[in-house]
Amino acid sequence: MRPLIIPFFIPHAGCPHTCLFCNQHLISGVKQDLPSAELIQETVQQWLARSPDRVAEVAFYGGSFTLLPRKQQEQLLGAVQSLIEQQKIKSVRISTRPDALDEAVLAFLANHKVTTIEVGVQSLDDQVLQQSRRGHTAAESLAAIQRVKAAGFQVGAQLLPGLPGDTQVKALASVKGVIAAGAEFVRIYPAVVLSGTALADQFNAGQYQPPGLEQGVKNCARMLHLCLQAGIPVIRIGLQAEEGLSVDGAILAGCWHPALGQLVKAQLYYDLVEMLAGQFLSTEGLQLVCHPDRLSEVQGHARDNLIHWQQSGIVIKKVQTDANLQYDQVLLSNIQQKCRGSIITTCIYKERSDA
Ligand code: SF4
Fold it and tell me: Which Gene3D superfamilies does the entry mention (predicted)?
């Protein structure tokens, strides 16, 4: 059973930066100050009462946790220490910037029972980082991931493809780079233009156009494929549909959908079947088989995949399920040919260096 993650958002708290794309208040839907110790403890108890059997973890998201004044970090972490001692909470996770994770910081976090650190990498291309006013380099991100891992924490990387100056090739290189540095899980947040950001000013001035939903989903599918191949879980794709984002005019452009992760997985199956069909002498009257739990992803949102395959000449006459297939596998066949593929092990995409 997956751990119960009890999230607390500390939007922009402690962060002296103003990244081009950032509007943490909109992302989290939270406008108040840091949660008090009482609020944290009460909230944890409420969540535990609803899911008494699950292993629970407290997460402090948003902002840059380790740039908060030390007293406030102690206040937040202190609020959960007794819950950990009583074995109500197993661990704590935080997210922060790569340049706010030196050895002293890591020692402090370890002493306060933080076990997982998510590093806001965004991109491993220095030009993209500079254009996004991140204020740190790719080398600092890689060193931070390595340092966090060496100190015994579980380490994750947050990536943000589609920022100004980014390309699909750079985004894929960023995935490979964080995995090679030791990231144990990844979050992918494709670029969206949020109102009230410097990125919105660039967008409104016609200086920047993010990849839209269709292109963003295609890019994310490739990133997901790399992670799957490396055995690295992608624990989130796309911003949560929080209250702030659903306000009219909050999102001006970019790749956003409340079920973006599902769209990306469906795209991966679409690309897999398209690649397999390319090996068939005839792409008429094909039969497609997948694991029952993957049927909706294979067919796509509102059966979009079936429609789009047909439009590109791949006519699937029947989709069936077979529980003996692995979750990641599909079987494509017609009277003459049969071909098995996997969204993990099949090499779906050709390497490109031009995008
Ligand atoms: S470092 Fe994080 S919280 Fe701070 S401005 Fe950038 S994205 Fe926002």
Answer: tm_1862 like domain (3.80.30.20)
User: For the chain, what are the domain ranges?
Assistant: 4-258, 270-342
Domain range 270-342, CATH architecture? 2-Layer Sandwich (3.30)
**240 vs 222, higher pLDDT:** 222
Give the position, in ligand 1's atom list, of the atom nearest the Cα of 11.
3
pLDDT at 237 over 50: yes
Q: Domain 4-258 class?
A: alpha beta
Contacts 24+ apart (CB under 8 A), 332-337: 332/273, 332/276, 332/277, 332/280, 332/286, 332/287, 332/288, 332/289, 333/286, 333/287, 333/289, 334/280, 334/282, 334/284, 334/285, 334/286, 334/287, 335/285, 336/280, 336/281, 336/282, 337/279, 337/280, 337/281
- The DSSP string of 49-106 is HH-TTS-EEEEEESS-GGGS-HHHHHHHHHHHHHHHHTTS--EEEEEE-GGG--HHHH
Say yes or no: CB of residue 100 within 6 Å of ligand 1: no
Substitution candidate for ligand 1 out of 17, 23, 134, 163 with most atoms within 8 A of CB: 17
Which amino acid would we find at residue 322?
Answer: D
pLDDT category at 63 given cuts 50, 70, 90 is confident
pLDDT at 341 over 80: yes
Average pLDDT over every residue of 89-106: 96
Mean pLDDT, rounded, for 3-9: 91
Q: For residue 193, name the pLDDT band (cuts at 50, 70, 90).
A: very high
